[in-house]
Amino acid sequence: MTGMTMVEDLDVRGMQHCETTALGVLLRHEGLDLSEPMLFGLGSGLSFIYWDSKAMGFPFLGGRVKPFELTRNLAATLGLDLLVAETTSPRKAWQSVAVPLESGRPVGLQLDSYHLDYFTTKVHFGGHVVAMYGFDEQNAYLVDTDQQGGAVSTSLTSLATARAERGPMAAKHRSFTITAPSNSTAPQDRIIPAIKTCADAFLNPPIANLGHRGIEKTAKQVPNWLHRSDNPQRDLPQAAVLMEKAGTGGALFRNLYRDFLAECAQLVDSRHLRTGHSLYAEAATHWTQVAALITTAGESGDAEHLLQAGSLLHDLARIEREAMQALSRL
């Protein structure tokens, strides 16, 4: 076929979360096949943020480190060569994608998912990450999450618009490739440092809306959420969907971290690790209940559900703090 560039023999599996999906594609191409929880955990991906401002229609709850930080963490942890290109020029931006693809290497992209043809829910999110593995005259061939269809395609025009979009969390046409040097670190040797990095950040947040303090703050704010919105029937269920669906793997990324700790406990024999795992298993269940209570409150207009959610969130601040304290002792 003329004018088609494709990376050969690529394993194009979608996962639950966008950035770990893209990392999986790039790393498998380098001969490193890690589970999604392992990618998330070795990237010290778990976090918490409560974000609200006058400009926002409704508060945002985040469960992970900011976009692309997971990729940087993972590369540093495993000693991988991460080559990042950013530019304001669409022409240069295209070169930094076309050149590696033509030499047979998949490329990661950070862009705004709003413009991608295959996205059914049109929401601006500038922190979306995909892997690109080919292109022809019309289309770009991408790997996105399972939820978005795994191996998908979008027009080159829509890709260019998505990459050029400015706004919260957007990066300037960011693209990246990863190379694993022959002497890169065995992943299991990096488990403990990656967990401790994550725990330290979570236990010592620089501001009160991050980490365990952020969950505590959320516990105080959620009971007033019916009054915080001009359309609670829309905003509360939508906030819950973002916690459970939106690429979080459920329970605001807690399911992924629970599974990461379970996998680690198979590789490292440690009481602290087992404690952390059982507490995160409990936390994951609680987060899913919180999301359900928020949905019900929005649909019914009954603040009692938000009081229950608030009290679960108080428990969560404590459970996750205890989990991270145990893990920081590894």
UniProtKB/TrEMBL annotation:
<feature type="domain" description="Butirosin biosynthesis protein H N-terminal">
    <location>
        <begin position="17"/>
        <end position="145"/>
    </location>
</feature>
<feature type="domain" description="DUF4872">
    <location>
        <begin position="158"/>
        <end position="327"/>
    </location>
</feature>
<dbReference type="InterPro" id="IPR032369">
    <property type="entry name" value="DUF4872"/>
</dbReference>
<protein>
    <submittedName>
        <fullName>BtrH N-terminal domain-containing protein</fullName>
    </submittedName>
</protein>
<dbReference type="Pfam" id="PF14399">
    <property type="entry name" value="BtrH_N"/>
</dbReference>
<dbReference type="InterPro" id="IPR026935">
    <property type="entry name" value="BtrH_N"/>
</dbReference>
<dbReference type="Pfam" id="PF16169">
    <property type="entry name" value="DUF4872"/>
</dbReference>
